[in-house]
Specification:
Nucleotidyltransferase, domain 5; about 290 residues; 6-stranded antiparallel β-sheet; alpha+beta; globular
């Protein structure tokens, strides 16, 4: 199967200890890898184990690289669920499940996560508390170096050079978000109120006492969309929002930190800035070319 046709592999969710704001989280790392080039299409750490990490990471990958024709996933519950299957169908993505008890089908992704653990995660766990925003920026800087590194399985070609998709299949942000909306059923109160995940939402009284389907982005509970009989009725914004996303569990910890690990992360960020600057310097505007001639 030619990976240039758009065959992506999902890396199984991996866990790593992470420190933030004097607390310890078990961060969830998720990424998607192009089967042909080994290019990592998205790599991200998430702070909440109940957060829909697979969907969020896949959306980011699609926004950056377009829709793949196929994705290869394991047989976990999240991949077999109705919401994920429906999203793939709406986006025109063929979802393929790996064969049960066949570890060879996961070899590429397992090797990548072993490399990530040895060369990045071990250093991260020696650092003092940091926000998840910085953690993901550091992961992006580390990927910049990884993508330009010769890969033994690619005849020493780096993934960035090998990645040459034949067809780009873009999708609008609105279509992408709506494809991954989840749903639930609620009955609107006589006062036009809907209680949803401890949040309060109000709609027009003409909808009072009606049972509706609530579609929502699990990453952002600030708004919900009400549907009935296959038609969109109205969008409701929270007037009282306890949690924008589901709360995560924190545990106090105490551990030592490494100055060497911090220097390593700073070198990653510096290398990324220098690469971006080199790319900017190569850009020459049309007016400048005309003046030069």
């Amino acid at each position: 199967m030619d990976g240039r046709e758009g065959h992506w592999r999902d890396v199984p969710v991996a866990e790593a200890s992470l420190l933030t704001a004097c607390r310890q989280h078990t961060s969830k790392w998720v990424c998607w890898i192009d089967d042909h080039s080994r290019l990592v299409l998205d790599l991200q750490a998430f702070p909440d184990e109940r957060f829909p990490v697979i969907e969020a990471s896949l959306k980011r990958a699609i926004l950056k690289h377009g829709r793949p024709r196929r994705i290869l996933v394991d047989n976990g519950k999240v991949y077999s669920g109705h919401s994920f299957t429906l999203a793939c169908s709406q986006l025109g993505i063929h979802k393929i499940h790996s064969a049960p008890y066949h570890p060879q089908s996961k070899g590429k992704v397992e090797k990548f996560f072993q490399f990530l653990r040895r060369n990045f995660l071990n250093e991260i766990e020696n650092l003092p508390p940091m926000p998840f925003e910085r953690l993901n920026r550091l992961a992006g800087a580390w990927l910049d170096i990884y993508h330009d590194r010769p890969h033994k399985s690619l005849d020493e070609a780096p993934p960035r050079q090998r990645y040459q998709p034949r067809l780009h299949r873009p999708v609008s942000l609105q279509v992408l978000e709506e494809s991954f909306w989840q749903w639930d059923v609620r009955t609107i109160s006589p006062q036009g109120r809907i209680e949803f995940h401890k949040g309060h939402y109000f709609v027009d009284l003409s909808l009072a006492n009606q049972k509706v389907i609530v579609r929502y982005d699990p990453c952002d509970l600030s708004r919900i969309i009400l549907w009935r009989d296959g038609q969109k009725l109205v969008e409701a914004t929270a007037t009282q929002l306890v949690h924008k996303t589901k709360p995560r569990r924190d545990l106090p910890i105490s551990r030592k930190y490494s100055d060497a690990a911090e220097r390593f992360m700073q070198s990653l960020e510096k290398a990324q800035r220098e690469r971006i600057q080199r790319e900017v310097n190569l850009i020459q505007l049309p007016d400048e070319e005309a003046d030069a001639s």
